[in-house]
Each structure stands twice: as C-alpha cells, then as structure tokens.
Amino acid sequence: MNPNLIGKRSDRAKARYFKVLKYQLGILLVLSAVVVVIDFVAAYSMLIGGLIYLTPNTYFANKHFKKQIERSAQRTLAELYASQIWKVALMVISFSLAFMLVKPISVFSLFAMLILLQVSYLILQFSVKTDS
Fold first, then answer.
1. What confidence tens digit (pLDDT) does each residue in 5-44 have?
2. What is the per-residue burial (b if ≥16 Cβ within 10 Å, else e) of 82-106?
3. What CA–CA distances, in Å, run from 80 to 2, 69, 74, 75, 122?
C-alpha cells in the first residue's frame, strides 16, 4: 500500500463533514437572527435547539476523525460506537438542562431547528464538495 495515500480518503471525509457543520452553524445563526425580530423566545429556543444538535456532532466528528493511521478495523469500529454513545449522552444531558433551566422555552422552535439541521445534513452531505 502506498504510504502517501494513507488517510487521504479520511481527510476528504473530515473536510466535508466539518464544512457541513459550518454551513449548519450559518443556517442556525441566520435563522435565529431573522426570528429574533419576530419572537425573542422562539429565537433563543431555536439557538438552543441548534446548539443541542451541533455540539454533540462536533464532539463526535473530533473523536472520529482524529488521526487514524495504523489502526485495526475492530478498534476503529469500537471507537466509532463509543463516540456515538457519548454523542447521544451529550444530547440527552443538553435536552434535560434546556428544559429544566430555560424558562420560557418554545418547544416547537427548539425541535423545529433540530429537525431542520438534521434534514440539512442529509442534503448537504451529498452536495458539499471539498478540494482533493
């Protein structure tokens, strides 16, 4: 195997994943800024929902895309599962904190942003191009 090609595919996937996260952050900030003029509670609820989505996904990406040279498939898969479990745990903790500490909160706006960012991920992962 050519040592110059080790990790090249992973580097492109990492660049694409983080580019999608940046686009999603932009979507979150723009929509929250637009909605703040209409309804302040809905705007910060959208912001919280977006952060509940983006923070664990950024953590997952950082854990998953750290240098993966010379690792076995089993170890990579185990680390992938562990990162996914931590991502879900962070989301559960974030939801709990949001509903316990933030009053008033617009549940519709929070979940609408969360769903919008998930749908945007499904669309952007196939349309975002990275430099080879």
1. 455 557 777 888 889 999 999 999 999 999 999 999 999 9
2. ebeeebeebbeebbeebeeeeeebb
3. 25, 15, 10, 8, 19
